[in-house]
Amino acid sequence: MNAVETLNPTNLAQALKAKANKNVVAVAGGTDLLVRLHDRITQPWPKLLILENVKELHKITVTKTAITIGPSMTFSEIENSAILRKKALQLVTAAASAGSVQIRNRATIGGNIANGSPAGDTIPPLYVLEAILELSSAKGKRTVPIEKFFTGPGKTVLKPTELITAIKIPNRSNHGFFMRLATRKALAISKVSVAVNIIMNKSKVESAKIALGAVAPTVIRATLTEEYLRGKEINQAIIDEAARIVQDEARPIDDIRSLAIYRKEMVGVLLKRGLESVTTNG
Amino acid sequence: MIIKFKLNGKNVAIEAPGGERLIDLLRERLNLVGTKEGCGKGECGACTVLLDNKPVCSCLILAAQVNGRNVMTIEGVESDARLRAVQEAFVEAGSVQCGFCTPGMILSAAALLRANPKPSRDEIKRALSGNLCRCTGYEKIFDAVELASHKIMKKAASK
Amino acid sequence: MSVVGKRVARAEGSERVKGAGLFADDYKYFGMLHAAVVRSPLARGEIRKIDFKTIAKIPGVAGILTYKDIPGRNCVPIVIDDQSFLAERYVNYIGEPIAIVVAENRQTARLAAAQAKISIEELPPLLNPLEALNHPKIHLFGNDNIYKHIHIHRGDVKKAFADCDVIIENEYHTPYQEHAYIEPQSMIAIPFPDGSIEIRGSMQCPFYVRKAITTILGLPENKVRVIQCATGGGFGGKEDVPSLLACQVALPAWIFKRPVKLIYDRTEDMMVTSKRHPAYIKYKSGATKDGILRAVEAEYIIDGGAYSTLSAVVLFRGSVHAIGPYKCENVDVHSYAVATNKVPTGAFRGFGSPQILFAVESQMDQLAEKIGMDPVMFRKKNILRVGDTTVTGQKLEYSVGLEETLDKVIEKSGWTPGKSKEDGVGYGISTIYYGVGLGAGGKSMARTGARVLVHADGSVLFSVGTTEIGQGMTTVLSQIVADELGAPLDWISMMPTDTSRVPDSGPTVASRSTTMSGNALKDACIKIKSVLLEEAASMLDCSTGDIIFDEGIVTGGGKTIKLLDVIKSCFAKRLPLSAEGWYITPSTSWDDNTGQGDAYVVYAWASNLAKVKVDKETGEVNLLKIWAAHDVGKAINPALAEGQIEGGTLQGVGYALMEDMTTNADGAIRNPEFSTYIIPTASDQPEIVPIIVEHPFPGGPFGAKGFGEQPLMGVAPAIANAVYDAVKVRIKDLPITPEKVWQGLKNK
After folding, report:
1. If I label B25, which of C250, C329, C530, C695 is the partner at 20 to 30 A Cα–Cα?
2. In the predicted model, is pLDDT for residue A170 greater than 70?
């Protein structure tokens, strides 16, 4: 790739000011962006806004009600965060299963969201954790629930002048899992992934949130299955029925990684396995 | 811009575009050609260097991003006795075939052993999964990491 | 003490772990330009207009060259001269080279090449080899699109099938396999004022490269010097392709009188360089109920792509291996290498045999099952042993260790066929063989030279014409030289392979380096040793027959002296301590019409046993362990031999389970990246148990025979057989993806 010009802010205000200009692309870890720039042959080249030294974006803050994850937090940092391990195991599992050590050391959660890939591994967990994104520009900020953020593969509501400045999830004990299938055991993009967050009221399901990755143009919620599980006492028959329902909520395609019919059924298999493990582990 | 960073233990200041890839900065400007380019897309790990002691792909990092940081390449490994044990183990265990993936592999192994001096086979596999090797079948590379771990532990014990 | 047979450390190991700059891209030359290739965007068409005006204006672009600039012949010679170096009027595959751009830096060259405007009138392409074969209208090669047809015929197949108790008939398909060497194709050309040119790069076959350069520049061989740089993996992928790159740098270097470097981008490399031929196999085999393989009838079609390159020789090897390592008196095999408008396919570890062996070994298990015999017993009744005759009518006189490899994998694994096991777990076996060296298909090149130079300080420098590509040749040959001279191993060094050092020694392919260069070095060492012996005899005052050389110590007549003193004495007396060595293989024979003859001088043999656990819901195959036993004649260095087994086995695992390269509707490679072409990572590696078996080859150095390709060859069928054993799903179409196993489970 060509050596392009960079902008190097050291605080958020500078970064937002720089982002107000046209043809400026933000670089967090760069693990996706630099791959795309490698193949880019047409000019003009964008200016790259280096977020590396913007400390405000690179931390986790915890209050009684919310955990705020800075968008520059890397997958490795998420994987090793004690608070997230306790309160957002789905996200930790997803971060730990993506890419390689080298990629996880650089890839950031903010970058994963901004890319808008339906196979982005941290996104299904953020759906079920009901994450709220804070989007900022030089003119101010707004919040968007993560489910409203994506409009298509690689397409989001983020404006060219905006940056993702925070990812907030509720500070509560979350119970659930993240599972995926991929083309090999490491360094692979998901063929299908399932994230679940489940709240039990004694032996009954009070609420279940289910998100499916790589089986639709964006990550989607499996609302029919969620509805079905609500109020149920989990047993094998219920799990099997949920696994059946969820397959019809997936809208996958055939691509280089897998087949639609396979993906559809695997959504069910993963949900079943996850629910079984959740119930076995109490 | 002038990129200032610590490279293999020494301070470096060099004029380069901030958007130049770290691998190009190392190979083309600083003549450190031990870092190899296998794919340019972070998929093979041949260009692995350590950034603040963590393995990263130098093809996916920009010069501006290493400003003020600490970078170690394969050329710096020799000055570090502990990491030198990894190199020796690679030779002894017969882990090198063509040798193109070897520098990146050694840096990943060294970073693993720094964080986890006695890794299990599964931990070794996970730590090296970002470094593709097409020659060896990995078996003798895992052997080398175990051998290096043994050497480092022994040395630490004898101190 | 001899060093042959010892696990000595690899010669290059200590430099490579330091990343010392030795690969082609690590070299820089003053005034060096960088090249990039302008390529065809269409699978078939006629070039109408080329417009380089815009890209010529890009700052840093030094020039753009087309076929009009070639001073010699516009041809990359391989087997048949059907491939142009740069397209003139027609293009025949996506990625075919049309022009070369050179610029002051790599980025500019690549950017300019990608923006070149070429208008091509599209012609209908042939993308499917089954349609291309004998196509009535479109003729890409000859009038039938067949690069080569081989017929192997023995006995009376029709009659024999009538006598069979069981017959199994199937169709199999195998995909492209990409070499995925981690170092991309890399080449540099350096022109000299005396009218000569030097090529340095990543390659297996410097003499092929020299021939290509003399052809396109119209130079004599003494004006072209080719030196191999450290080569980051080959596996066949750097057999013929480096000739193309060498032309792509030599032409601009020659014209602009400046060094030129070319490194393929990974995506480009995967798009346009050779791969393993996709294959379509129809296979019918029959046996009697007492377990005797009676008849085989097969049709083997390989997709050669747009130019013939090595397809004819790939087909030869595939055809010779078409019934596996078994006795069978009634055989009818027709094989075809077919032209299509896709990237030319070529050499890859196994060279046409892994495809057909996948069919052969899958058939063997199905026959065994139908007879009701265990697959090991069935193989034991049919495998070749010393004294048996191969499918090509060759009587095996020596070095047939197949049965021992089979016994060893069974013994080490503790597996008993048919014994009950955990649900979803299965075992699968394959037995295979490999004709070592070029054989009758490449007879004219079956020669090799060597040169050994003993210096006055005792240090020894040798040169050979074959190359080190990671397999360990340098170390193995150094061990041979050390023992032949009776010198310590650390006295011995090898020159980088260089066409100016030894006569044309043929290619580094076909697992031939240890035997061919080893024998040539032996020849040279014997000449030097005779001088040393005479001198030692006079120093020790005994007869030459009583003298023993061993790692630098010379004993005889009850006395001991240092080899170094003998060498010094030779130099003082002005005796010559350098010699040329030469080796040609014993005669092979072949008849294309009957497929009969002594195809190869010797064969290597192997058995693989795979243990899998299949996830019945997801179809995922978890490969738990693989035992791989290989008869290598003699392991000159067991550690390096194990390295070959482990590495080749894992490439076979990739071929079996995940490597799935395909083309899209336009004929372009659909997944030319490491993110989409999936090869095994460290996490995908099963436990591999390498087992070395040694049935010495009398014609090999210390009994050794080549086997470097063999570890890949029998892995896929062993895994396919294991998957069947586990869940009774028979996959006949590689790779064995979860999707296919899942589909198979559903269809049961």
Report:
1. C250
2. yes
